[in-house]
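Hey, sorry to bother you again with one of my protein questions. I've been puzzling over a protein and I'd love to understand its fold better. Take your time with it, there's no hurry, and the full record follows here:
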Amino acid sequence: MSSGSETADGPFATDPLDRTALAAVGLVTLFVVALATAQVTAAKVIALPLPVGLPVVGPEIVLPGAALAYALTFLASDAYAELYGRRAAQVVVNVAFLANFLVLALVWSTLAAPGIDPEISAAFDTALGPATNIVAGSLLAYLVSQNWDVFVFHAIRDRTGPQMLWLRNLASTATSQALDTVIFVGVAFFLAPTLFGVGDPLPPAVLVSLALGQYLLKLAIAVLDTPVVYLIVGAVRRE
């Protein structure tokens, strides 16, 4: 039979410091899982119909499947930055950037290995084989936008103090998502095809429509995740 002291020292301890550490692990896990999911879902392009057509964008928003998972990384990083500071958030962002290469290496090695069933192998190649232009655009966009998110978040916090979490969450996410969208769309669908012949460059009008539609969705997610950031931060600080 376990004693009370043994239970208190276990992995589900109720000590406030242990709960704070558990929250840190949970946020980092959410960040990494969302990022890894974004990598393996980037190849699928989805179209979300709109209730009404928008100028430039049209009747639907076209975006890579990775966009939905990737938006969660900003929720996790903002909550983590608020609770544990700028340096800790930058470490998470940049270590996760290196982890991207591990995910890609594991995916590519699996695709390169000979398969028993040719049809299944072909399906895997189609679903998980990210194009070079998509990889280049997503990695560069990630590196710039995530570090910008942490920078802006703490630049606002330095000026406003612990109040106005909503402002730094929205401002940092809105600007970083704009950078992410412009860099990703510009590199993946224009610069890489034009300069290196990787894929076919899209016409300027299509690029603008693609970028604007993606950004509007990401901005809506940023607004919706603000209450969630408040809930996470409030729950951890109460401990």
